[in-house]
Amino acid sequence: MPNDAAPTPHPEAETDHLPLSGLVVLDLTLARAGPTAVRHLADWGATVIRIEPPPTPGAEDIAGNRHGFDFQNLHRNKRAIQLNLKDPAGHEAFMRLAAKADVVIENMRAQVKHRLKVSYDDVRAVNPRIVYGSISGFGQDGPYGHRAGVDQIAQGMGGLMSITGLPGQGPVRVGIPIDDLTAGNLLAMGIMMALFDRTRTGVGRWVQTSLLEAQIFMLDFQAARWLMAGEVAKQAGNDHPTGIPTGVFPTSDGSINIAASSTRVWERFCDAIGQPAWKAKPEWKTQKGRSNDRATINAAIGEITRTQPAAHWIELFESNGIPCGPIYTIDQVFADPQVQHLRMARMMKSPVVGEKQVVASALNISGLSKDIRLATPEAGSSTDAILRDVGYSDNELAEMRSKGVI
């Protein structure tokens, strides 16, 4: 799968045992959606070369605060170079790298990569095996193809904000950049599909997604409700849109989530909560009937659950096979024994930032470690070594540096 004459992996990486070892990825991404895709490849062994512009005096770093929690969490397990793609010499250096790479990933506005001459067609001309991944706001062409896109705009245009929040509250954004993250996750999967296909065809492909497409995809059954049944979903707050009771219920010391919507679980729930008579109510015997009477059901449940602490109900419901769980703040998430068992926080040792924990990959592959191998790199920390790998001499590097190319 990897190209034969690729830049050599970093000697500290120790990635020979990881599934993407030997793959060389050029990272042109900004913000979050693109880096999310790259992070999957970096975490599982690819040699990722992050390409950033040389610093401009007085300008803010387009990549954000390099030593802040966000940048550090997004860009671990990479190497970094600085390269001015607008300069002919910088462009030539990029094309040398691209000729030996396996993957290029970018999330520029559609026209920018063409202006810089680093588009799929440009790279394919020197490397027909390249798998080129792109994330845009609204697609590479079409009426909105030229527009810049950000997560919250796509949440709104993709319908998510219309179904998030309490009934009548008005549009509400989701508390994480769910669209950026989804687009990045989808692009990483698409890139792996194209790499697998390359093992059979010998040629690469251009893999594309957009924030808008990713958000509509994530509507899932809510979108299918409209497409197949003509139903426009509304805000349902903490209730499941169709399965009742599923939602948030008060306890004496906070709140819990309970999911007891199927007939079998509903009957077990009625017995566990001490209300077997609820099973006999004709209007509550079906999911549709319970959904129609959700306010009454939720109020009746809440009057009972508020009499005991969350731990009491969680123990009771778990022992009766009724899905339930606490509602944590983020610090409580990482204090939970199951989360600690899963080791979703992993230590990263940086010579600049020190020892800090970052969020682990959510994937687990038997026999393989997902510990952080390489700390998030300093800007341009591997520029000379990487460009030497593709034939640049020390004199050439010194000249490029003096001209601000690197």
Summarize the structure in words.
A 6-stranded parallel sheet has the order 3-2-1-4-5-6, with helices on both faces. A 3-stranded antiparallel sheet has the order 7-8-9, with helices on one face. A two-stranded antiparallel ribbon has the order 10-11. It contains 18 helices and 11 strands. The two termini are 30 Å apart. The chain folds into 2 domains: 232 residues, Rossmann fold; 87 residues, 2-Layer Sandwich (formyl-coa transferase, domain 3), CATH 3.30.1540. Helix content is 40%, strand content 14%.
Observed structural traits:
406 residues, alpha/beta, Rossmann fold, formyl-coa transferase, domain 3, 2 domains, six-stranded parallel sheet, three-stranded antiparallel sheet, 18 helices
For CATH, the homologous superfamily of the largest domain is named as Crotonobetainyl-coa:carnitine coa-transferase, domain 1
Distance between the termini: 30 Å
Average pLDDT number: 94
Structural class assignment: alpha/beta
The description of the largest β-sheet is:
6 strands, parallel
Distinct helical segment count: 18
What is the CATH class designation of the largest domain?
A: Alpha Beta
> Which fold name is given in CATH as the topology of the largest domain?
Rossmann fold
Spatial sequence of strands, sheet with the most strands = 3-2-1-4-5-6
CATH architecture of the largest domain: 3-Layer(aba) Sandwich
Enumerate the spans where pLDDT stays under 50 for 5 or more consecutive residues. 9-15
Per DSSP, what share of the residues sits in E-state strands of 2 or more residues? 5-15%
**Cα radius of gyration in angstroms:** 26 Å
* Count of the separate structural domains: 2
Task: Spell the H/E element sequence.
Answer: EHEHEHEHHEHHHEHHEEHHHHEHHEEHH
- What would you call the shape? elongated
Number-wise, the strands total 11
Helix content: 40-55%
